[in-house]
Amino acid sequence: MNSALPTTRRQRIWREMKDYLLIALGMIMYGIGWNVFLLPNDLPSGAVPGIASIVYWATGLPVQYTYLGINGCLLVLSLIILGWKFSVKTIFAVFVLSSILPVIQSITNGVSLIHDQPFMACVLGASFCGSGIGIAFSANGSTGGTDIIAAIVNKYRDISLGRVILLCDLVIISSSYLVLHNWEKVVYGYVVLFISSFVLDQVVNSARQSVQFFIISNKYEEIGHRINKDLHRGVTFIDGVGCYTQNNVKMMFVLAKKRESSTIFRLIKDIDPKAFVSQSAVIGVFGEGFDRIKVK
Question: Which domain of life is it from (predicted)?
């Protein structure tokens, strides 16, 4: 029993490290989309970065300062409602993004990418930003700002993250007209918002896809034990009878994340290469280890 503890601890540490690495990657992508494509082309965005952009255009104050100040207040709310684990990762994300922004600004100083093609800048910037937020959310973190509000709403109601952010950010983008005095730029901001929300949902939903397995094997106990131990997934044994042979069989029913499929197949092959395995995708799985049931 004690020999399994170090492995479990190592797995837990690796999962946490992977989360932080993914959050850092997401923030780098967001920083590129915001600073390389949106900000130089005067394209407004939503959330706290949108507010920071408006302040920058109006006063010239670097965006990282406004971004840090507003997020400091929202993180207090996150600690109270979402808990320390989400908040710590969000603080890490805010720190990474605030730190990487000056680096990106110095590297791209004087460089103007697709400056005369605002729509392409809009599409590329929104794609980078939406992917960055989606990766951060998949790793149980966020960029702060309206992401925190979206996470709070999503915790209690079955409303997609992208939709909540969309509603919150419409007001922020509309407010950019007070500084830019250009409705064309505001319309581009709406396009940025819709594209980033769509990309966000695609990234998050792809990370949450689940699969179900039906496994028939004479070594069902060993396979079930390994799935319990290595993947921490539940296994249900179902009694069955073969129609042709009339032999009693044990069938295993397993629900897992799609990304865990290859691990399950490797595990089964190592134990019983002749096992009969059926895999299928499921629309949604709710319960411990998966999504929470959220109803109005």
Answer: Bacteria
Q: How far apart are the first and last CA of the chain?
A: 43
Task: Let me know how many helices (H) and strands (E) the chain has, helices first.
Answer: 11, 4
pLDDT score of 4 more than 60: no
CATH code of the domain containing 245: 3.30.70.120
- Between CA 5 and CA 114 the distance in angstroms is 54
Cα–Cα distance for residue pair 256/113, rounded to 1 Å: 43
Dihedral pair phi/psi, residue 253, rounded to 5°: -115, 120
What's the rounded Cα separation, in Å, for the pair 43 and 129?
Answer: 13
Amino acid at 254: V
The 248-257 sheet, strands edge to edge: 235-241, 248-257, 210-216, 276-282
- What letter would DSSP give residue 265? H
Encode pLDDT of 172-187 as tens digits. Answer: 888 888 887 788 888 8
**Rounded CA separation 291/241 (Å):** 33
Q: What three-state secondary structure class fits 241?
A: strand
* Tokens describing residue 63: 């965006």
Could you give the CA distance from residue 268 to residue 29 in angstroms, rounded to a whole number? 37
Alpha-carbon span 46 to 196, nearest angstrom: 10
Same domain flag for 179 and 241: no
Assigned token pair, 105: 């600004």
Dist CA 251 CA 62 (whole Å): 61
Distance, in Å, from the CA atom of 247 to the CA atom of 285, rounded to the nearest integer, reads 32
Domain boundary among 175, 207, 239: 207
Residues 218 and 174 placed together within one structural domain of the fold:
no
The residue with greater pLDDT, 45 or 1, is: 45
Q: How far apart are CA 30 and CA 97, in angstroms?
A: 8
Tell me which DSSP letter residue 256 carries: E
Q: Among 52-66, 136-150, 251-265, where is mean pLDDT lowest?
A: 136-150
Task: Write the DSSP symbol of residue 213.
Answer: E
